[in-house]
Design a protein that fits this description.
The chain is mainly α and 135 residues long. The chain has helices at 5-39, 43-71, 73-92, 97-125, 131-134. The longest helix has 35 residues, at 5-39. It is elongated, with a radius of gyration of 17 Å. It starts with a helix and ends with a helix.
Length: 135
């Protein structure tokens, strides 16, 4: 089994980006007490910080997959990573709980972009006989 440098780099990029959403939710759960104090959020508003991300990613998984098949998975993957990065920056610089919740929703949408298109990129980049190992 001889993989090219391009295939190895694709595998690494997709692996790192698939980790981003999972890491984000775990880190947000740990930071919830600090977020509550910083923005003076009540329990319902605080729950929306996490729920907005999860709701957005669940809502957009299927539509993004269909749109990726129609318009190109690599382009959507790049857009998803870019928007995720920018929305992470805005979340870190948020001045209110409302802004944080809105950009957590945008992060969820962009996480759907990268989590749906990532496996499709892997499947297209490797031979079918290595598909199970790569995924």
């Amino acid at each position: 089994m001889k993989w090219t440098k391009k295939q190895i780099s694709i595998l690494g990029i997709v692996a790192i980006t698939s980790f981003m959403g999972t890491f984000l939710i775990s880190s947000i759960n740990i930071a919830l007490p600090a977020i509550e104090k910083t923005f003076s959020l009540n329990a319902v508003e605080l729950s929306w910080v996490v729920t907005s991300f999860l709701l957005a990613s669940a809502m957009f998984l299927l539509p993004v997959g269909m749109f990726g098949d129609l318009s190109g998975i690599r382009r959507l993957f790049k857009i998803g990573v870019l928007v995720f990065t920018l929305s992470s920056l805005v979340c870190g610089l948020s001045t209110s709980g409302t802004v944080l919740i809105i950009f957590m929703f945008i992060q969820g949408v962009s996480a759907a972009f990268s989590s749906v298109t990532g496996p499709a990129i892997l499947v297209s980049a490797f031979d079918p006989k290595y598909r199970g190992r790569v995924l």
